[in-house]
C-alpha cells in the first residue's frame, strides 16, 4: 500500500498530537476521520475544519473505512482499544502510533494483533507541555524527528508507508531505530531531562528567589510544567532504561560535588572542558539538523 | 556623590561584562576610562568607540582621574589589584564590582581598603556563555537583574550611586540583598543549574544520540558550554552554599528515582504536580518582570 491521496486515515485520540496530525493531513488533502471521547473536542475539530468526520466511540461501519489508523492515545488506552475493537479494522489496514516508549508496547500490540493487520510503531518527537486539542499545532513537526521502530514482524512496504506519513506531516528528519535503541535514546534525551527539571523545580524552598532568576534557571525548568498522568505512565513503562540514565547522571553529579567539596579546581575544570567539548559537538549536529 | 555626567568612570577589565559596561556608559554620555591587560582588547574598544581612553596597566595619573571605578575581574585578580594599586585611587572615589559571588570577597575587600574609598559590591546578573570583548553586548542588561549587596560599612549615598549606575546601564530590575542572601540565591538559581548542565552534558556515552535530540535536552544543556576558569573559581568561592543546594536537588532526584524504581505512579504524580505548581508561580513572577 502507498500513501496516496485516496487513502482514508483514521486518527484515534484528538489530543495535542492527534489533532496536529489531523490538521496536517487534512491540509495535505487527505480524508481524515477521527474518534475521540469528548464531544467538545470533536466540535472544536469540526469548527477548525481539521477532520472530515468524527465520532466519540468506535463503530464498525466507521472504523472499517480506514486504510491507515494512527493511535494517539496513552499506552494503556491504546492496548485496551486494540483488545476491544480490533475486530472492526479492515483487513489489510496499516496501523501506527505516537507512543513515546516502545519496547514495552510494540511487541505486546503486535502479538495480540490479527494476522491481516500490520502495526508499524512510530514516535513523533514533538511533545508540547500543554495537553488537548487547543494546543495542537502542526508547525511543531517542522523541526522535529520522526522515528519509526520496526520489528521482525514488519514488512518493508508498511514501514515505508509509515515513513511517508512522517514526510507528509512535515517532519524534518525521519529515522529508523530498534525499539530498544529508541527507549535508551528517549530515556537519556527526554525522560532524564524531565526528571531533572521536576527535581530542580521542587528543590527550592523559597519562592522569593524567583525574583532574581536569570535565563539559566528558566531554561532548565521550561519542561517542569508537566502532564503528570502521561509522564508517570511513560516513566513506569521505560523504568529500566530510565533508571540506568539517572544513575549515569548521578555519577557525574557526585563527581562534580566531590570536586567542589575538596575545592579541586582542576577536577572541575577538566569536567567543564569535557562538557564544553560535548556541547560543541552537540551544537554541530543540531545546526546541521535545522 | 551623584552619578552626574561629569563623573569619570574607570572600568578595570574589558571582558564580556566590562566592555558591555563601557559601551552602555559611553552611549549615555559618560567619560569612560579603561584598564585592561591585552593591547588587542584595547584596540577593539577604541575602534568600537566604547572608551575615551585606555591603558594596559595601572598608572597613578590615569587611575586618580576616576570618580567611580568598576572592577570587572576574576575575584582573585580583583583582590590582587586592590592590594597592589589602591594607593593610586583618588580620595573619595566609589568603587564597585561585577563579581558573581559576594560573602567571600566583599568583607575581605572592604577590610583591606583605605578609609577614604568606599566599596559598594554589585552583581549584574547578565552572564554570557562566551568570554571576551567580542561577545560584549549591552543589550543583555535589558532583561536582567542588577543586585547591590551592601554591608554595614556602606553609606546610603554610595549605595544609591551604585543603584543609579545599574539604572544608567539599563538593567530591568535593581535590588538590594545581603551578601549572604545573594550567595544562597545564586547557588540555587545559577550555580546549581550550571552543575546540572555540566553533569548532564558529560553523562552521555554515545554521540550518535544527539541526532535525535528534541528541545528539552538542548534547553537543559544550553549553559553546558562553560568558562571553566571562571566557574571553577566561583564554585570554589561559594562552596558551602552551593553544596547545600546540590544536596537539596539530590534529595528530590532520589525521591523521583525511588518512585520510578517502585513504579509508584502516585508518588511521581504528586511530585510532578508540585513541579507544575511551582513552575506556574515562577512564570507568573517572570512574566511580571519582563
Polypeptide structure, described:
The structure is a homodimer of 290-residue chains. Chain A is of the alpha/beta class. Chain A folds into two domains: 170 residues, NAD(P)-binding Rossmann-like Domain (Rossmann fold), CATH 3.40.50; 108 residues, 6-phosphogluconate dehydrogenase C-terminal like domain (6-phosphogluconate dehydrogenase C-terminal fold, Orthogonal Bundle), CATH 1.10.3660. Helices cover 51% and strands 12% of the residues of chain A. Chain A has eleven helices and nine strands. Chain A has a six-stranded parallel beta sheet, sandwiched between helices. In chain A, strands 7-8-9 form a three-stranded mixed beta sheet, covered by helices on one side. In chain A, strand 5, helix 5 and strand 6 form a beta-alpha-beta unit. The longest helix of chain A is centred in the last third of the chain and has 25 residues. Chain A is elongated and about 70 Å long. Chain A starts with 7 loop residues before the first strand and ends with a helix. The model of chain A has no long low-confidence stretch (mean pLDDT 95). Chains A and B meet through helix 7, helix 8, helix 9, helix 10 and helix 11 of A and helix 7, helix 8, helix 9, helix 10 and helix 11 of B.
N to C succession of SSEs of chain A: EHEHEHEHEHEEEHEHHHHH
- Largest interface, chains and sizes: A-B, 88 and 87 residues
Helix count of chain A? 11
Rg estimate of chain A, integer Å? 21 Å
Q: What summary fits the major beta sheet of chain A?
A: 6 strands, parallel
- For the record, the count of structural domains of chain A works out to 2
CATH architecture of the largest domain in chain A: 3-Layer(aba) Sandwich
Task: Give the oligomeric state of the chains in this entry, treating copies of one chain as homo and distinct chains as hetero.
Answer: homodimer
- What would you call the structural class of chain A? alpha/beta
CATH fold name of the largest domain in chain A: Rossmann fold
Proportion in β-strands of chain A = 5-15%
Describe the global form of chain A. Answer: elongated
* Strand tally of chain A: 9
User: What is the strand arrangement across the widest sheet of chain A?
Assistant: 3-2-1-4-5-6
Amino acid at each position: 500500500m502507498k500513501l496516496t491521496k485516496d487513502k482514508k486515515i483514521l486518527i484515534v485520540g484528538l489530543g495535542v498530537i492527534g489533532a496536529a496530525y489531523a490538521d496536517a493531513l487534512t491540509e495535505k488533502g487527505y480524508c481524515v476521520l477521527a474518534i475521540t471521547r469528548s464531544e467538545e473536542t470533536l466540535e472544536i475539530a469540526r469548527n477548525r475544519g481539521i477532520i472530515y468526520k468524527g465520532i466519540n466511540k468506535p463503530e464498525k461501519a466507521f472504523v472499517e473505512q480506514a486504510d491507515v489508523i494512527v493511535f494517539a492515545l496513552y499506552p494503556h488506552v491504546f492496548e485496551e482499544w486494540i483488545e476491544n475493537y480490533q475486530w472492526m479494522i479492515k483487513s489489510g489496514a496499516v496501523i501506527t502510533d505516537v507512543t513515546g516508549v516502545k519496547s514495552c508496547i510494540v511487541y505486546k500490540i503486535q502479538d495480540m494483533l490479527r494476522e491481516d493487520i500490520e502495526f508499524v510503531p512510530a514516535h513523533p518527537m514533538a511533545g508540547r507541555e500543554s495537553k488537548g486539542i487547543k494546543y495542537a499545532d502542526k508547525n511543531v513537526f517542522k523541526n522535529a524527528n520522526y522515528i519509526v521502530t520496526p520489528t521482525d514482524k514488519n514488512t518493508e512496504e508498511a514501514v515505508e508507508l509509515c515513513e511517508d506519513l512522517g514526510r507528509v506531516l512535515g517532519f524534518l528528519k525521519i529515522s529508523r531505530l530498534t525499539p530498544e535503541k529508541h527507549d535508551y535514546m528517549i530515556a537519556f534525551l527526554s525522560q532524564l531531562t524531565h526528571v531533572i527539571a521536576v527535581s530542580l523545580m521542587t528543590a527550592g524552598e523559597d519562592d522569593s528567589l524567583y525574583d532574581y532568576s536569570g535565563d539559566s534557571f528558566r531554561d532548565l525548568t521550561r519542561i517542569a510544567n508537566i502532564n503528570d498522568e502521561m509522564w508517570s505512565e511513560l516513566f513506569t513503562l521505560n523504568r529500566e532504561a530510565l533508571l540506568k540514565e539517572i544513575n549515569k547522571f548521578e555519577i557525574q553529579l557526585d563527581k562534580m560535588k566531590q570536586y567542589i567539596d575538596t575545592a579541586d579546581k582542576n577536577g572541575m575544570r577538566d569536567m567543564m572542558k569535557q562538557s564544553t567539548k560535548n556541547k560543541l559537538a552537540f551544537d554541530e549536529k543540531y545546526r546541521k539538523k535545522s
